[in-house]
Amino acid sequence: PLSFPPLSDEEAVRVLRGRMKGIQGHCNSCYMDAALFSLFSCTSVLDSMLFTPFPLCDRNVQSILRDEIVHPLRKTGFVMARSVMHLREQLTEKGQCSSFTNAEKDPEEFLNLIMQQILGIQPLLRLQSGGQKEQDCYCYQIFMDKQEDLVVPDVQQLVEHSFLSSDLKLVEIPSCFIIQMPRFGKEYKMFSKIIPSLELDITDLLLDSPRECCVCGDVATLECS
């Protein structure tokens, strides 16, 4: 099939900015629209979801995702609501959950369904909490208490605070790090705005990673939270 590479730099601004751009919303689709836009508009790191014939892959869902959503988004910068509804109808059928076509869902629920049950790809993240057993997952949802000093935080600050408060470490450098911000849902949003971090430093989040001592500059042997 024809392949359109992800948009970058000036091309991304030209194609994606303006009226009737992005993914058209309909019937509480915002959680899915935002997730799909983030995963595919300007990065190719998850393009295996579009082309690779995974052993458990549902090729019909894969073709809808590729040909009706990702390709139009990258080519013209616009995806019609009926294309996303077509995907939602397939997810409803495969996921045995009737509310996928009309209700607002948690983005993590959508990602787990399409990545694990429908496309059958391997988990993207390996996490360890407090020295306990490792756990695999597809995305990381930020959980943290309200911080009075964080009025308009950036993503770097939120990830570090969340990992620290949950005593979490990354077991290995992830091939793709999908992070769900604490700004979803209709009722409550912890922050009015979050500044995107264009780069994410995960040095201090890695398990058993050699790091520099902040006092003498040698390789550190102790870590203080």
Task: Describe the overall structure.
A hairpin with a 5-residue loop joins strand 3 (125-129) and strand 4. By secondary structure, the chain is mostly helical. The strands form three sheets. A three-stranded antiparallel β-sheet has the order 4-3-6. It is globular, with a radius of gyration of 19 Å. It folds into two domains: 9-118, Alpha-Beta Complex (Cathepsin B, Chain A), CATH 3.90.70.10; 125-220, no CATH class. 18% of the residues are buried. It is 35% helix and 8% strand. Helix 4 packs antiparallel against helix 5.
Characterize this entry briefly.
With 225 residues, the protein is mainly alpha-helical. The protein is built from seven helices and seven strands. The strands form three sheets. It has a three-stranded antiparallel beta sheet. Strands 1-2 form a two-stranded parallel sheet.
User: Which homologous superfamily in CATH is the superfamily of the largest domain?
Assistant: Cysteine proteinases
Number of domains: 2
The CATH C-level class name of the largest domain: Alpha Beta
Q: What is the percentage of strand-forming residues?
A: 5-15%
Report mean pLDDT, rounded to a whole number. Answer: 90
Number of helices: 7
Query: Biggest sheet: strands, sense, closure?
Result: 3 strands, antiparallel
Named at the architecture level, the CATH assignment of the largest domain is Alpha-Beta Complex
CATH topology of the largest domain: Cathepsin B, Chain A
Number of strands: 7
- The best one-word shape is globular
Helix content: 25-40%
Look at the helices and sheets and give the structural class.
mainly alpha
Separation of termini? Answer: 50 Å
| String of helices and strands | HEHHHEHHEEEHEE
- Low-pLDDT runs of 5+ residues are none
As a whole number of angstroms, the C-alpha radius of gyration is 19 Å
Record the strand order, biggest sheet: 4-3-6
